[in-house]
Amino acid sequence: KTKNLQSENIKTFGLGFCSKGLLAGWVAIPIHNIDGQVVAYIGRAVNDTQAETDGKYKVPPGFKKSLEVFNLNRVLEQKDLIDKYGIIIVEGFFGVFWLYQNGFKNVVALMGKELSDRQRELLLSATDRFTIFLDSDEPGRLATEKLSGKLIHSAFVRIIEYPEGPRRKPAHFEKDELKELLSVKKPSLE
Predict the structure, then answer these.
(1) What per-residue confidence (pLDDT) applies to 186?
(2) Is pTM beyond 0.70 here?
(3) pLDDT tens digits, residue range 57-98?
């Protein structure tokens, strides 16, 4: 499943099906450090059966997700965008892919629900304005509280409130809905 990703987006992120090696039979997702160097490839299950059998993701031995922020290297190339809108933080790769494909180029992923000290340092070196858009399930809500608590004393933090309904991830929203959710609304003076 490509999860409705456009070929341009697949190319931008260097995604590909791996036919040999440690990630044979998985979709390979390159992980870059802030300098743009590939530091690892993480495998993503290609279907639900594989995810149930082998897990959704395959992380190479020795790679520590807590030392990198996914897509921060691309976001840092968008200085004007960061200065104007800050950085949107999501949990996972597909949240980044979906938002990026829908015009939000200032999005990064923690590659999970936890913000390590190193990730905090990397993010704060880029900006002091963040929009938190983690999943809206119970673990996501708890992670949002912890994440905002780790950033609030050093940065402006905005938390996206999900509308009522079954949608629980950023990728569950269409482009117009994302624009509405992520737009900065001016307070009413009435």
Answers:
(1) 54
(2) yes
(3) 999 999 999 999 999 999 999 999 999 999 999 999 999 999
> Beta strand pairing status for 87-90 and 38-44?
unpaired
Question: What is the C-alpha radius of gyration for the chain, rounded to an integer number of angstroms?
Answer: 17
Q: What percent of the chain has pLDDT over 90?
A: 89
**CATH class, range 72-182:** alpha beta
Domain ranges of the chain: 7-64, 72-182
Residues β-bridged to residue 173: none
Report pLDDT for 2: 45
